[in-house]
C-alpha cells in the first residue's frame, strides 16, 4: 500500500447468508480523491460503504483505511440519507458532541467555523427542528467534518431533499471538497450527481456488486459555476458514459 492510499480494497467479497452481495472487488483510492459509487438499487453500494466504515466485516478479502483495519465510528466522518441529529441538542450542541467524541477542543469559534464551512451562519443556538431539512443535512456534513479523520463517507445524503436544495448542497459540497481536500466516498443513484461531484466515478454491476466502470473525471474541481460545469460538452459525455454503463447491465 502506498502511503498516499487512503483506502485499499483487495479481493473483497461480502455475503448475507448464502447471497453474495458484493465482489470480488479490488479498488485503491488515493488521498484526496472524491470517489462516487453509482449503480442500480440493490447492487451493494451501501454494503461497500459500510465495509469501508468498518460497520461490517468482509466475508472475504480485505479493506484497509489509512493502512489499517477500519474501526467503526472512529475511522471516518459519516453522513447518511437522514441527518440523524440529536433533537434535544441545539445545532451547535450537535457539533460540540462530535468534537468531544473526536477528542478535540470545543470552542464556540470552532463550532461557528465548521458551520460556516457548510454555509450556515447564526444557527448554532437553534434547535435542530427549527431549521430546514437542507440545513439539517448541512449540519450533518459539518459534524462529519469535525472528525479530523481525513475520510468522509456519504450514503445518498441528498436523496431525501427537494431538487433545488439538492443542487445547492451538491454545489456547496463540491466547494467544501475542493477546500478541504478530504478523501471522500459518496454513494448515489444519480448519474448527474455522480459526474458533478466525483473526481472518479465507479459504476457497480447489479448484485453481486462488481466494478463495471472505473472512470476518472477530468472536470475542473473549483473556480467554475455549477451551470457552466453542467453545460460543458465533457460533462454531457461523461454523463452519457456512466448512464450507459448502468443501463447496459440492468434488465427491467
Ligand atoms: N443486512 C442485510 N441482510 C441481508 N441482506 C442484505 C442486508 N443489507 C443488504 N442486503 C442485500 O444486499 C444487497 C445489496 O444491498 P445494498 O443496500 O448494499 O445495496 P444498494 O446498492 O446500496 O441499494 P440501494 O441503492 O437500494 O440503497 C441487496 O440485495 C440487499 O437486499
UniProtKB/TrEMBL annotation:
Question: Could you tell me the superkingdom of the organism this chain comes from?
Answer: Bacteria
Q: Name one GO molecular function term.
A: ATP binding
InterPro entries attached to this UniProt entry: AAA+_ATPase, ABC_transporter-like_ATP-bd, ABC_transporter-like_CS, ABC_transporter_ATP-bind, P-loop_NTPase
Q: Which SUPFAM superfamilies does the protein's record reference? A: P-loop containing nucleoside triphosphate hydrolases (SSF52540)
Is Transport included in the keywords of this UniProt record?
Answer: yes
Q: Which residues form the ABC transporter domain?
A: 7-231
Q: Which CDD domains match?
A: ABC_NrtD_SsuB_transporters (cd03293)
Per UniProt, the keywords (alphabetical) are:
ATP-binding, Nucleotide-binding, Transport
Q: What is this protein called?
A: ABC transporter, ATP-binding protein
Q: Which organism is it from?
A: Actinoplanes couchii
Amino acid at each position: 500500500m502506498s502511503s498516499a492510499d487512503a483506502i485499499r480494497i483487495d479481493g473483497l467479497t461480502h455475503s448475507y447468508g448464502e447471497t453474495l452481495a458484493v465482489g470480488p472487488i479490488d479498488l485503491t483510492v488515493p488521498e484526496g480523491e472524491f470517489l462516487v459509487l453509482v449503480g442500480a438499487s440493490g447492487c451493494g453500494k451501501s454494503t461497500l460503504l459500510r465495509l469501508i466504515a468498518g460497520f461490517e466485516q468482509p466475508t472475504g478479502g480485505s479493506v484497509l483505511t489509512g493502512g489499517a483495519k477500519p474501526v467503526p465510528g472512529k475511522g471516518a466522518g459519516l453522513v447518511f440519507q437522514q441527518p440523524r441529529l440529536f433533537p434535544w441538542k441545539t445545532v451547535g450542541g450537535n457539533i460540540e458532541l462530535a468534537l468531544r467524541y473526536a477528542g478535540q477542543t470545543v470552542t464556540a469559534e470552532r463550532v461557528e467555523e465548521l458551520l460556516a464551512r457548510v454555509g450556515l451562519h447564526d444557527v448554532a443556538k437553534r434547535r435542530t427542528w427549527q431549521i430546514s431539512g437542507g440545513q439539517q443535512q448541512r449540519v450533518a456534513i459539518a459534524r462529519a467534518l469535525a472528525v479530523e479523520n481525513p475520510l468522509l463517507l456519504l450514503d445518498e445524503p441528498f436523496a431525501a431533499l427537494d431538487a433545488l436544495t439538492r443542487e445547492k448542497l451538491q454545489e456547496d459540497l463540491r466547494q467544501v471538497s475542493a477546500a478541504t481536500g478530504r478523501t471522500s466516498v459518496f454513494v448515489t443513484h444519480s448519474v448527474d450527481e455522480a459526474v458533478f461531484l466525483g473526481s472518479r466515478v465507479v459504476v457497480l454491476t447489479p448484485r453481486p456488486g462488481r466494478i463495471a466502470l472505473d472512470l476518472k473525471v477530468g472536470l475542473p474541481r473549483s473556480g467554475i459555476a455549477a451551470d457552466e460545469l453542467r453545460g460543458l460538452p465533457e460533462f454531457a459525455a461523461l454523463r452519457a458514459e456512466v448512464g450507459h454503463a448502468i443501463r447496459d447491465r440492468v434488465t427491467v
